[in-house]
Amino acid sequence: YLHHLGLSLQAMDTSHVALVSLNLSMEGFESYRCDQNIVLGININNLSKVMKLADPADSITLSADQDPSTLKITFDNPKTQRSTEFALNLITLDVEHLSIPDTEYSSLITINSNEFSKICKELQSLSESLTISTQADHVQLSVEGAAGSGFIKLTNNDSDRKEDQTLIEVEEAVTQQFALNYLNLFNKASSLSSFTRLCLHQEQPLVTEFKIDSLGVLKYYLAPKISDE
């Protein structure tokens, strides 16, 4: 979705358990122009194949006409003077832009991205699900599986190194359970940001948020697992 303030992308997995939302502000681009709001339907698999044509040093230009059937993607490499252009066929979307309600989250956890990523990876070898319980001064990440049960307790940590700090803000305690395979997929984005922010509310999906410096924010929404009780 291109609009005069920037670019926003949304995708949902087929089982409707998870949603991803990426917002990139126009200020983060070298040059940005959008004469009118426009919605482009893109096949993610195809986009990912086209992106493989790019070199990490390339600059990328995205352009679309007024009534587009393709999104033109151009990669320019100033060093090697190589230029690659691809017209990606657009698809018709069933859903227009999804409006995600603004929620006041009652628990916020800000943790080093690599640390959270490592925790989830290790825990998935012991259990399929992770239960997150927030209390006024700590958070418990617990698992239960064939090997047994256990938990990791996180408390506020104002380490001298900013990257190692953990910040826990709880207005209302929340306990929810989530599928670890989804969390591990989300954590692939951990290289984009020093911190992962988890936003929880008892009645809402979990939001896993990565702030991208001076460009925007990437958010993953994950529906909690409903217990059988």
What's the short version?
By secondary structure, the protein is mostly beta strands. It has helices at residues 44-51, 113-124, 180-186, and strands at 2-3, 6-12, 18-25, 59-63, 70-77, 82-89, 107-112, 129-134, 138-145, 148-155, 167-170, 175-179, 195-200, 206-212, 216-222.
Structure description:
The structure is a single chain. The chain has 229 residues and is mainly β. Strand 14 (206-212) and strand 15 form a beta hairpin. Helix content is 12%, strand content 41%. It has helices spanning 44-51, 113-124, 180-186; strands spanning 2-3, 6-12, 18-25, 59-63, 70-77, 82-89, 107-112, 129-134, 138-145, 148-155, 167-170, 175-179, 195-200, 206-212, 216-222. Helix 2 (113-124) packs antiparallel against helix 3. The strands form 3 sheets. An 8-stranded antiparallel β-sheet has the order 1-2-3-15-14-13-7-11. Strands 10-9-8-12 form a 4-stranded antiparallel β-sheet. The model has no long low-confidence stretch (mean pLDDT 93).
Keywords:
15 strands; elongated; 229 residues; 3 helices; 4-stranded antiparallel sheet; mainly beta
Quickly give the structural class: mainly beta
Sequence of strands across the biggest β-sheet: 1-2-3-15-14-13-7-11
- β-sheet strand percentage: 35-45%
Low-confidence stretches: none
Q: What's the helix-strand series? A: EEEHEEEEHEEEEEHEEE
Total strands: 15
Number of distinct helices: 3
Query: What general outline do the C-alpha atoms trace?
Result: elongated
The radius of gyration computed from the alpha-carbon positions, rounded to a whole number of angstroms, is 20 Å
- Distance linking N and C termini: 41 Å
